[in-house]
Structures are given as C-alpha cells and as structure tokens.
Automatic annotation (TrEMBL):
UniProt organism field: Belliella pelovolcani
Keyword Glycosyltransferase: no
MF-aspect GO terms: endonuclease activity; exonuclease activity; metal ion binding
Protein name: Metal-dependent hydrolase, endonuclease/exonuclease/phosphatase family
Gene Ontology terms describing biological process: DNA repair
Family annotation (SUPFAM superfamilies): DNase I-like
CDD domains: EEP-2
Cofactors required: Mg(2+); Mn(2+)
Pfam families, A to Z: Exo_endo_phos
Keywords of the record: DNA damage, DNA repair, Endonuclease, Exonuclease, Hydrolase, Magnesium, Membrane, Metal-binding, Nuclease, Transmembrane, Transmembrane helix
Amino acid sequence: MLRFLTGLVFLISIFLFFSVYISPEFFPYAGLLTLLIPPLLVINAILLVLLILAGRKLALVPLIAIIIGWKFIGITFQLNSIPEKTEGLSVLSYNVHLLNYTKDGQDRKTVTQNITKWLQDNPSDIKCFQEFYQDYTTPSRNAIKALATDQGYEYSYQVIDGNIKKRSYGMAIFSRYPIINEGRVFDTRKNNGVIFADIKVDKDTIRIYNAHLESMSIPSEGLSDLDGIKENYRETLRKLKNGQVVRASQLGVLMEHMRNSPYANILVGDFNDVPYSYTYFSLRKIMNNAFEKAGRGFGFTYNKVLFFLRIDNIFYDDILEIKSFKTHREVDYSDHYPISATFSWEKPLRKVQIQDAD
C-alpha cells in the first residue's frame, strides 16, 4: 500500500510540476491543478521522512520529486538578506482599488486621505498604479494633482473607462524622470490592461510596463465560511478557469510587445495569478522576479480573506541588477499590498534581446 501511495504521489507531482508550462488556452484546467503543488510538496516531504525512518530505499522516490520541484519552494518562500541602504532606481507597484478601499467601520474619506498621504510620502522614483481613479471635478479626489504634479512627477495616465475630463479610472505611471514615450499594449474596457512608458534616466532609457491582467474573480467575501464555500465553489471554479484562459491570451500580446521593446524592460503590476501558473513561469523564463532575487518571507500581496496569495509582481531584464525588494504589508489601504524594488545597472544600458519563451 505504501509503495502504491508513494508511486501515485510521485506521478501526480511530476505531472503538476510540468503543467505550469501548458497554456490554459489548450488545457483550461491546467492552472487550477497547479494550485495543488504546495500541498504535494508537503506530502512528499512527509513521505520522505516516514520512509527514511522506516529504512526503506523507497525514500528515493519522494526525494527525487522534491528535487524536481525545488524551484517551487524558491518561488514560495525566500530568505534573502535585507540591505541596510540601497541606491538606484526605485519602483513602486500598487493596485490602489480606486483609492477608496474600506473595511467594516472605516470611513471612506479617511481611507482616501490616508492612502494619498502614504503615496505622497513614498520616495519611489517611479510609481505604477492599477485601478487608478481620477476626478477632475472634486479637488480632494484629484489624484493626479495630489500625487503627480504637486510632487514633481511626470505622469502617463491611460483611461480604461469614464470621462477623461471629469471622472475616470484606468492605469497610471508616475516618474521623477522624463517620460519620452507612452502608450497602451491593450485594455479590456473593464478594468484590466497593460500600459507602458519609456523613461529617460540620465543618459539611459528604461521601458516600464504596468500590467493588470484579467481578474481571478474570486468572491472572497462568500468564501469566509464553510457555507459560503459550498455555495460558491462551482461558480468560483468556472471563473478561475475562464480567467486562466484570458490571461494566457493577454500574456501572449504582452510578451510580443516586450520582445519588440528597444529598451531594457521592467514589468510590474497585478497579474491576478499565483506563482504556480503558466503566466508566472512564462515570464520567469525571460525575466527575473524581484521577490525571488531579493524578497523575504512569503511575500503575500492580497489583503482579503484569501491572504495567502502573491499575485502582484515585479519582473525585470537580466541586464538590470536588483538591490532590494519589499512587500509593504503595513499598508492596508487597498485589497492589495504595495510592492517596491530598487535597481541599478552598468552604464551605458544596453538592450538584451528577449528570446521566445516557447
């Protein structure tokens, strides 16, 4: 029985370890199955200990599975040292939830004031926002004035919906350095999309991509108890499956755009996908992940019931060197936590050709 169980766990583990390279466009449920990778690693570890204590050579089987799946441990948890002081180009990414996220008992106006004050005090050279809300009709809600022009930042604001001269929401990139080019890769006319800005840093130019991929559509409020889980799980699975397929399609458009970029790329944003996903591993093939290289702990970025999700990321090209990374879990003004990283590079900065990830 133990031999059968060990073999079965091994086969399932190997299949799941390699399923992250299968596009959900071809196998829609691949992205859902990969969510089982963390518990499978734990099961393999338990089997390894039990078989070693029993003196069984069969212990080699879970050991091999753990070795093959070791990369998943690194993308889940890190123990990088925290530098005392960092210098370089600092980049912040934050899904600000329209700048008015509230929890029970919180006053919406106070929350907006708090997040605005924190963002004004944050010293990052480049600030990227998803679900950014702009209101030109109400001085207290004029976020571009408060966070960009009054703070000495240039900005690129791409509207997804609303009246550009009155009230709207979309995605924004703020920069202390000159923005010499800007545009959008795509948008869904809902609340998702990818924009970019070419930023002149001294004599070099860096392209910043700000991404907000298709939502996971998880009704977290309905999953707060057992009855909610029973009631919502079928609909949740359907939405998760559909989201995986749409993100795979969006990812193809984004990666093609990055391949044609004339500059070194930094990609930030809310990817709405966990690290055990086709989205994450496709990007990981061609770029480095800031959390993996300089993060510490689990790096969870979701500020709701499903707190164990890391769906916000910063990716960067090889030619750049990361100095620091931080998840600002003390900042709970949105349903996401902000993340930031600092980069340096040898000058002059030269573009490294992105290879096809296929």
